[in-house]
Amino acid sequence: MTAPLETPTIVEPDIDETVEVARPWVVVVWNDPVNLMSYVVYVFQKLFGYSKEKATKLMLDVHHKGKAAVSSGTREQAETDVSRLHAHGLWATMERD
Amino acid sequence: VPRAPFRRNRSGGFDVVLAPGEAAVLTRLCEELTTLLADDEPPGDQGDPVLERLFPRAYLDPTEEEAESEWQRLVHGDLVDGRRRALATVEGTLAGAELRRGRYELMLSAEQAEAWLAVINDARLALGARLEVTEDMDLSGLDPDDPDTAPFAVYWWLGVLEESLVDVLSGSS
Q1: Cα dist. B1→B5, B21, B120 in Å?
Q2: Could you give the ipTM of this predicted complex?
């Protein structure tokens, strides 16, 4: 399925903004053998305001698939989320989407 | 059924009941964590699995080394301070516990209970990294008096304690 081509309108992009929008950063939480499942759910709810259902689904993804993307945003937002997760003892890293 | 160590009380806080041996173990774990957190500098590549677990990298990508160092420089002090504050709260509240009928009783505010959760979780992380525990280890029913299994028994007990605390903080009991 291909959309018909339109004549592109050239707009001078703001380089930094384009980079951030095109490649947001993703915060990934990795499975570890120590953290309790109930604790991980509690932390996801507390830090991100997720519902119990969403927090539980993310926790189960971490548990079964080894990792889950829990938030995304600019580099600064991702760095903040990673440090909050580390403060709560979760093993989190960040990467470009 | 043994009493849960943590219970929500009517004033919005939490009641804690610990056996004297349990209070002593917690006090010792606080001392060990305090020693572990004595250094203000990021752990770097010291090869210490416990410090690496408590202070992991933010960037997996090795080409982001500069961003990683900058991030460590910015947040490491706050991460250490947060952990030290939580430890001070747990040590202070433990020191104020009252011995009644052979058990230590104390009350925690919601904020203090969060500090307890942070410290118990850090203690499990540190112990788990040192003992190299795996997910499929069955650590229930170990003899806490056997020197070979005692650290694993402590690790297992911390899990029971933490489950109880998460349970009351989540409001499900």
Answers
A1: 12, 19, 23
A2: 0.93
